[in-house]
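Justification of resources, computational component.

The compute hours requested in this renewal are based largely on the per-chain cost of generating structure records like the one below. Each record pairs the submitted sequence with a full structure-token output. That output is archived, and it is also reused by downstream analysis tasks.
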Amino acid sequence: MKSQIFQNGLFGVFAIGFSYGIYKMFRGITKTEFRESIKKQIIHCYNVSANQGFIEPFDILQTFSKNEQGIEFHIKLVKSLSKKPVDHQQNINPLIEPFQPGQLVMKLQKYNILLNKYPVNPYHILLVPQQFIHQTEKFSKDYLSLAYDVLCALEGFAFFNSHNEAGASLEHKHIQIVPKSAFQSANILNHIKEQQFDRSINNRAKFIKLRYLKRIKHFVSFFNQDLLQNKNCNESVQQNLIYETYEQLLNKCRVEDIMEFKHNLIMTQEFMMIVVRKQSKFNGVSFNAVGYTGSLLAKNEQECEKLKQTKIIEIMENLAEPDDGTYSDVDEF
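The structure output for this chain reads:
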């Protein structure tokens, strides 16, 4: 039975009916094998769909870098982004069935993995609830934990835009995940990751703020890697560890109404980060959570030129909520 599921489901174009937690149903399937199966299916479906024309080609027309306060920001002019419709041009929900041919990667119990038609990186996917949940609603434990499994499968990072002001373009809740190659231009995330090895056990409970973004309301919290990466870490433990970090960050941001909380969330294997937003555009430049990774994407020559002329950190400061607070439980680096 197990071999039949893998033969007919995981390695076809669509893995219909594949159930999250199947590694628990069959003793021979571990979490590592489950993640590896997800990775293979995403790669397979992306390559097939790219060849069949569902995915807009990820063509980089121009690229350049800017160093500000020791951080190398990478800017790319991506052809496919100019073809992406704005929210008022979409009359139907593209994240529910019936899907376009080549869009669905696999079904995972209550969630679907879908290919992003307008990728910001090859193998860019969306993890989407099968039933409509509004983008502004709070994440559930199983949703965040599954997103963590998928980002681990791709060795990449996940990002989320809560509102239009934070870069969201659809009302149906979705978190986006890009693979390991995306880290090459995400130097803010690389900088945070480097700090993990310099932090003592006593400081593990503290939050982090980045010195070059100190005027912006944002917080970073590292996961407890000793527990999360332990071979005995089951699904329940993983869910609780990730969700605890999520709630700690929300509490640190003093969120009263999650539906009104405009923010970007970024999650890697090591940490979670929240940036509080106030607007989506400044000086003709707009970006979502990806911008706060250190990787900036322009959809046309005009945006590209403005990114060349304007300080990146100045843009970030104007897109986010200001923060001049002093915190006893926050380290700055």
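Confidence is low (pLDDT under 50) at residues 1-27. The chain has one domain: 58-332.
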